Amino acid sequence: MNKACVAFWLMGLIFNVTALCQESRPAAAKSSQSAEKIYSVWPYDAKEAVRRQDETAKILGLKQELVLDLGGDVTMKLALIPAGKFVMGSPETEKDRLVFEGPQHPVTISKAYYIGVTEVTQGQYEAVMGKNPSSFKFPDNPVENVLWKEAAEFCENLSEKTKKKVRLPSEAEWEYACRAGTATLYSFRGNLADYAWFNDNAGKKTHPVGLKKPNPAGLYDMHGNVWEWCSDWYEEKYYANAKTVDPQGPDTGKKRSLRGGSWTARPQRCSTAVRGGGDPAERAKYIGFRVVVPAAGID
Fold it and tell me: 112 to each of 88, 121, 246, how far by Cα in Å?
């Protein structure tokens, strides 16, 4: 067994030993209605992902799905993602892995949050911003050709409109939601074409969101269609010194982080752990975004 495999095995063992101490307690001792639970067992299957969403919603007194009213009969759905622990990045043994997808490191997401069920569509963007910068103009396709600051401004405007804190996800939040309990190349086991639009099947364009199968957390297009802006500055070697609790990326940088791959990408570049850096001042018809709303403070 090589060093990478041993390290990965040890991280999993630590998570599972911690979990045995926590998960074996009576339900009343594990959590209360006033304290959020941080799940320790990882990886886990789709059934467990749904169970955790349901349990977290009950603990926090929230719904599993948040619906934002954008005005003009336009809405946006977001899914609840429980707090928990996972291993971020890809193992050295993963085929076609890029060096800046590692080193793998344990990460704790300490608070539950909602994340967009789909990428922000052109219809949603136009309802909030009053314009549409996209190259492929269809209301149900993801908005693209959007600058990072425009994505951030969309979040600010939507926050003001809905009276909820809307923002871009951190890289850690994005990958945690994408994995939804999985530790594999993609957030599913099966044919990539069933879950994603990428260079082999996209026909050199974006496609309406939500047409492919969702991941275990009920999220669509986490792989392919458009790359998604995250809040973090991008640094290839950041993982070597990254924080392990709610990491927010480097303090400064020249590029912003992108995740998920796009309609232009090869299959290997649509993986869960793949990372990219984009010039925040340049437009690209393969870059869009999805949003996050912290669960704390939701009525």
Answer: 17, 24, 11
State the angle between helix axes of 148-162 and 122-129 in degrees (0 to 180), rounded to the nearest 10: 70
CA atoms of 172 and 178, how far apart (whole Å): 10
Calpha distance 67→111 (Å, rounded): 19
C-alpha R_g of the chain: 18
Q: Distance between CA 24 and CA 80 in Å, rounded?
A: 24
User: Whole-prediction pTM value?
Assistant: 0.90
Q: Which of 204, 200, 227 is nearest to 290 (CA)?
A: 227
* Euclidean distance between CA atoms 105 and 246, whole angstroms: 12
Using a CB cutoff of 8 Å and minimum separation of 24, what contacts does 129-136 make?
129/153, 129/154, 129/157, 133/283, 134/206, 134/285, 135/285, 136/205, 136/206, 136/285
User: What is the rounded distance in angstroms from the CA atom of residue 46 to the CA atom of residue 195?
Assistant: 15
Tens digit of each residue's pLDDT (9 = 90 or more) over 8-67: 444 554 444 344 334 433 333 333 345 899 999 999 999 999 999 999 999 999 999 999
Residues 110-125, buried b or exposed e (16+ Cβ, 10 A)? ebbbbbbbbbbbbbbb
Amino acid letter, residue 51? R
- Are 157 and 124 in contact, with CB atoms under 8 Å apart? no
